[in-house]
From TrEMBL, chain A:
<dbReference type="InterPro" id="IPR051204">
    <property type="entry name" value="ABC_transp_perm/SBD"/>
</dbReference>
<feature type="transmembrane region" description="Helical">
    <location>
        <begin position="96"/>
        <end position="127"/>
    </location>
</feature>
<dbReference type="InterPro" id="IPR000515">
    <property type="entry name" value="MetI-like"/>
</dbReference>
<dbReference type="InterPro" id="IPR035906">
    <property type="entry name" value="MetI-like_sf"/>
</dbReference>
<dbReference type="Pfam" id="PF00528">
    <property type="entry name" value="BPD_transp_1"/>
</dbReference>
<feature type="transmembrane region" description="Helical">
    <location>
        <begin position="212"/>
        <end position="232"/>
    </location>
</feature>
<comment type="similarity">
    <text>Belongs to the binding-protein-dependent transport system permease family.</text>
</comment>
TrEMBL record, chain B:
<feature type="domain" description="ABC transporter">
    <location>
        <begin position="2"/>
        <end position="236"/>
    </location>
</feature>
<dbReference type="GO" id="GO:0015697">
    <property type="term" value="P:quaternary ammonium group transport"/>
</dbReference>
<keyword id="KW-0813">Transport</keyword>
<dbReference type="InterPro" id="IPR003439">
    <property type="entry name" value="ABC_transporter-like_ATP-bd"/>
</dbReference>
<dbReference type="GO" id="GO:0016887">
    <property type="term" value="F:ATP hydrolysis activity"/>
</dbReference>
<dbReference type="GO" id="GO:0005524">
    <property type="term" value="F:ATP binding"/>
</dbReference>
<keyword id="KW-0067">ATP-binding</keyword>
From TrEMBL, chain C:
<keyword id="KW-0472">Membrane</keyword>
<dbReference type="InterPro" id="IPR035906">
    <property type="entry name" value="MetI-like_sf"/>
</dbReference>
<feature type="transmembrane region" description="Helical">
    <location>
        <begin position="141"/>
        <end position="163"/>
    </location>
</feature>
<feature type="transmembrane region" description="Helical">
    <location>
        <begin position="41"/>
        <end position="67"/>
    </location>
</feature>
<feature type="transmembrane region" description="Helical">
    <location>
        <begin position="74"/>
        <end position="91"/>
    </location>
</feature>
<dbReference type="InterPro" id="IPR000515">
    <property type="entry name" value="MetI-like"/>
</dbReference>
<keyword id="KW-0812">Transmembrane</keyword>
């Protein structure tokens, strides 16, 4: 707990500095750059790349959350039960698809740019959220569900007032997994000309400039750590509020 | 008055509840008792249509439950279950106020009702109102569960093994509490139990189910004294029948003039209490008091006579 | 189940509707050469009617056989029939469309084929899930599917398809890439297991060590793969330059070594974490009993903790294997070889067929590994748990 109180602001400050004032880090990265080559990536602003990167991840995750929670609600109803074993297998097998392959396969259909990355992140993000939503919605305390029916909540009221709030911590865990995977996968999107922080890393790879690679990697890594941590905090808070004794992982 | 009329539930061709007919008088507690698989829970769940009857119907004050939408029906009928089934993400006040909220009661009325019920169940409203179920003891959770079932002043309260998850010592207190509150509110309760002891302790009427059929329906004394079938006799337990009988007779009924040594028993205690006091302290008689004043004694002789009389 | 009561499989209905819709989009494409835009051809016009009708009938019949909910075997048969019809049409189309279209003409499967392929695979999966075959039956089935696939590719019936033409002109490079990809994925798995198991056992024994190591490994996993590969280049380059003899072992800044090292680093967390979890899975009572009968800590590990934790350990290896097969594609970007080489070449040249040549085998490899590892995990589970 104590370590978190010091580390958390440190990570955020470092991240802000790296994104907003990259020139401060010139002495740190200088030994890594080839002689005479620029040390700090300046072809486009790191802030706009970060915003575009985060924006892609946020858009894909939002859409993935909406779709997969809806699907999870459908397969956990009686009418959709026939789809449940199938959907479980699809999720299980779908997660084995290499993210790069999904990204590459989206290119012939959508061309270069943000489009294929958005689609790949969306498709890839569906799986963990769907899996966790189904788990959350089907492992509700039976006595509570029985009582909800017994005191006269109709289907809709049960879903909105009881099932979704109780499943929320588990759904959020799925969203967190999805976001962290997406943050990393989005960097690969720059190989198909999406505007993400991967651009910095790829520029480094192409010019053998390790300073660029480290700079881009560090920013994405710190974003992942910060977002991961923030979502864990949120989950713990919601789990506490929902009265569960301990927060699920 | 609740009339259950030839109600039947068939699962895969096998009747779980087979043409059960019985009447529950308003303001009484009826305990449906039976082994697991006897159909007692199915019978209870057909009253608020958590299970749809295959045939037959239930009428509440003359109105058939089949004419009301199930979820609207359930809002008029309280329902408390084993393991309480509280909403873990809502605090105590919101849990108790769940049905009044569904019925669109005004906020201040709900709040007043929540406080009233908490007080009735000996839980300080200011202390408990904002707690979450996970922050309550097992006994407190169970009381909140029953309070929630009573919140909208339902015509009828259904309870499915409500004390099943409690340990025996708390269970006895919870049963006494329920009895007291039922008397105070005059509610009509149908309760399912597998425990004949609980049925006799709580019920004005006891209904014994076996293999989907209602095998006996009567007062506790009736059930103990004249078990209708060997199954009922078995449930009552032959060995303890005299003791069960004694537990039904209040001291006030058999008190005689005279004195006796030792501590006095209250007049609304049972002959069973008197017997154990005699045996425990080696006395042949115990004094009986009412509101602090001695009113006479009960002798071991009298106890023996009552135990043998109808056994 | 609602579907069973009505006798019609709900997924079956969905597949049938989607399958019929997929027949209404272009089935294959024909282009005059590699550069010009291709035009779509519908399923019924890929070849003369006499040749397409049997295929179309098989497709529709296959969709129809997927409907009865209570007959999973029939549904399985329907899926196989549908796949057969799909293959038939592809074969007819591949040769039929090329006939007289010029030397440089290319035919490719279009949206319709991919959709129908997905639909029949899903229909097959749904039927299989319903049949719930045991691990051995699943293994046999997988082998049969792979054998059928091999025979079809071997026969050359599909050779006119552009992606296979792409293959034909790169046979040697493809074999090379495949070997390299397997070496990267399995080599890093073996190395990670060699390092990870002992570290996991130590972490299991020593709580402090666990607290120190697991967070570091978790942090390694958050480094984006692209950056991880990139960072390995200067590190290994420096080692190759400054440690005498290192270059003789192939340690250098580009190529196989940095990709391999990056994969090993990514693999450590799942291996170590699952080893710790697996060893902790033995019930305390069993450990207590083992101590009580006088087993040393080494004997406890070998006879109680490892056997009981084996399914969890293997699950860790499954995660690593599938993850590494996917990540190894990125090695193509830093000259590490593997199927990624084709993917990135294809992306550079906007050559869809080349992308497919890299992506399809990667996906297939990952899927096969996942299925095989799942079977292994299930086989190591105690009988009682398997039945439950």
């Amino acid at each position: 707990m104590k370590a978190g109180a010091i580390l958390r602001p440190a990570v955020i400050l470092l991240l802000l500095a790296l994104v907003l004032k990259p020139e401060w880090f010139t002495p740190v990265f200088a030994p890594l750059a080839p002689e005479g080559a620029p040390v700090i990536y300046a072809r486009s602003s790191l802030l706009s790349l970060s915003l575009s990167h985060l924006g892609l991840v946020a858009a894909a995750t939002t859409a993935a959350t909406f779709v997969s929670v809806t699907l999870a609600i459908l397969v956990t109803r009686e009418a959709g039960a026939a789809f449940r074993p199938l959907s479980r297998t699809i999720t299980n097998m779908g997660q084995t698809f290499p993210p790069v392959a999904v990204l590459a396969l989206a290119v012939p259909a959508l061309g270069f740019g943000n489009g294929p990355t958005l689609v790949a992140l969306f498709l890839y993000g569906l799986l963990p959220i769907f899996e966790n939503s189904v788990t959350g919605l089907s492992n509700l305390p039976p006595a509570t569900m029985e009582a909800a029916r017994g005191i006269g909540l109709n289907r809709w009221q049960r879903l909105i007032q009881v099932e979704l709030p109780l499943a929320l911590p588990v759904i959020l865990t799925g969203i967190r997994l999805s976001v962290v995977i997406s943050l990393g996968t989005a960097t690969i999107g720059s190989t198909v000309a999406a505007r993400t922080l991967g651009e910095v890393i790829i520029a480094g790879l192409l010019t053998s400039n390790t300073a660029y690679v480290l700079q881009g990697g560090l920013i994405v890594g710190l974003f992942a750590v910060a977002v991961y941590d923030a979502l864990i905090q949120l989950e713990a808070r919601i789990a506490r509020r929902s009265g569960a004794r301990k927060a699920p992982r | 008055m609740i009339e259950i009329d030839r109600i039947t539930k068939i699962y895969n061709g096998v009747p779980a509840v087979d043409a059960v007919t019985m009447t529950v008088e308003s303001g009484t507690i009826t305990v449906i008792v039976g082994t697991s698989g006897s159909g007692k829970t199915t019978l209870l769940r057909m009253i608020n249509r958590l299970e749809e009857p295959t045939s037959g119907e239930v009428r509440i004050n003359g109105e058939s439950t089949l004419e009301i939408k199930p979820h609207l029906l359930r809002r008029r009928i309280g329902y408390a279950i084993q393991g309480h089934g509280l909403f873990p993400h809502h605090n105590v006040a919101r849990n108790i106020g769940a049905v009044p909220t569904l019925l669109n009661w005004p906020k201040d009325k709900i709040r007043a009702r929540v406080d009233e019920l908490l007080t009735l169940f000996s839980m300080e409203p200011a202390e408990f109102r904002d707690r979450f179920p996970a922050e309550l003891s097992g006994g407190q959770q169970q009381r909140v569960g029953v309070a929630r079932a009573l919140a909208s002043r339902p015509d009828l309260l259904l309870m499915d093994e409500p004390f099943g998850a409690l340990d025996p010592i708390i269970r006895a207190r919870a049963q006494d509490d329920l009895r007291r509150i039922q008397r105070a509110l005059g509610s009509t309760i149908v309760l399912v139990s597998h425990d004949m002891e609980e049925a006799i302790r709580l019920g004005d009427r006891v209904a014994v189910m076996d293999g989907g059929q209602l095998v006996q329906h009567g007062t506790p004394a009736d059930i103990i004294a004249n078990p209708a079938t060997p199954f009922v006799a078995d449930m009552v337990g032959d060995m303890e029948r005299p003791l069960r009988l004694l537990s039904l007779v209040p001291l006030a009924e058999v008190v005689e003039d005279g004195g006796a040594p030792g501590a006095a028993l209250p007049a609304d205690g049972s002959l069973r209490d008197a017997l154990s006091a005699c045996l425990w302290t080696g006395r042949t008689a115990v004094p009986v008091e009412r509101e602090g004043a001695l009113i006479g004694r009960v002798t071991l002789e009298t106890i023996r006579a009552r135990a043998g009389l109808r056994a | 189940m609602a579907g069973a009561r009505h006798g019609v499989s709900h997924p079956g209905v969905l597949f049938a509707v989607l399958g019929l819709a997929a027949l209404l989009v272009p089935f294959m494409t024909l282009a005059a050469n590699r550069i010009v835009a291709a035009e779509g051809v519908m399923a019924w016009s890929v070849a003369p009617a006499a040749l397409t009708i049997p295929g179309l009938v098989a497709l529709v019949l296959g969709l129809g056989l997927g409907l009865p909910a209570a007959r999973p075997r029939l549904r399985l048969l329907g899926a196989v029939l549908g796949l057969g019809g799909l293959l038939w049409l592809l074969v007819q189309g591949a040769s039929g469309l090329l006939d007289g279209a010029g030397d440089y003409a290319r035919v490719s499967p279009a949206l319709g084929v991919w959709c129908l392929l997905t639909i029949f695979m899903l229909s097959m999966t749904d039927a299989l899930v319903q049949l719930a075959p045991g691990p051995l039956a699943r293994g046999t089935l997988l082998a049969a599917v792979l054998a059928a696939l091999a025979v079809i590719l071997w026969s050359g019936a599909l050779a006119p398809l552009s992606v296979l033409q792409e293959y034909a002109s790169r046979k040697a490079a493809f074999a090379d890439a495949a070997l390299r990809h397997l070496a990267l994925a399995f080599g890093s798995l073996a190395t990670a297991a060699l390092i990870g198991f002992p570290v996991g056992i130590l972490c299991h024994r020593n709580r402090r060590l666990r607290g120190a190591i697991l967070p570091v490994l978790s942090f390694l996993q958050t480094i984006p793969s692209l950056a991880m590969f990139g960072l390995m280049i200067p590190i290994l380059g420096w080692i190759g330059d400054s440690v005498p003899g290192a270059q003789a072992f192939g340690i250098a800044g580009i190529g196989f070594a940095p990709a391999f090292l990056a994969l090993v680093l990514y693999s450590l967390l799942p291996v170590v974490a699952n080893t710790v979890a697996g060893l902790a899975a033995a019930p305390p009572a069993s450990i207590e009993a083992a101590r009580g009968m006088g087993m040393t800590s080494g004997q406890r590990l070998l006879r109680v903790e490892l056997p009981m934790g084996l399914p969890i350990l293997l699950t860790g290896l499954r995660i690593v294997l599938v993850q590494n097969i996917g990540l190894a594609v990125i090695a193509g970007l830093i000259g590490g070889g593997g199927f990624g080489t084709f993917v990135f070449q294809g992306l550079n040249q906007t050559a869809t067929d080349l992308i497919l040549l890299g992506a399809l085998p990667s996906v297939a490899l990952a899927l096969i590994s996942a299925i095989v590892m799942d079977i292994l995990v299930e086989l190591t589970r105690p009988q009682a748990a398997r039945a439950a």
